[in-house]
Request: fold
Amino acid sequence: MSKIDQFKTFVRKHPNLVTHVNSGRTTWQKLFEMWDLYGEEHSVWNEYLTTETNNQSEFGLGDVLNNLRNINVDSINKGLSGLQKALSLAQELFVKRESPNNAEEPYIPRPIHRHFDD
Reply:
């Protein structure tokens, strides 16, 4: 088994390492180098393995407010206005197809003996 496979097994045992990487507190490269240098049982892992389990249970109103502050309202507004324009355009197309005022005249075949409106 290669070192990378062993490291993947270590990460599977401790899934809270993924949250450290996803939150931007560390990188996979740094974790791999620490694992390679110190091994799995070193005290360096205490910071990554114990604090995360405590923080998961303390999810509160402050975390919700922090997440709401990170939302960009202008980009959401632009996206919604673009969606509204697309929906109104689609609605106009369907209304024009369904309305009887825009019905095409039925096809009348040309007589066989007339070639070019003689």
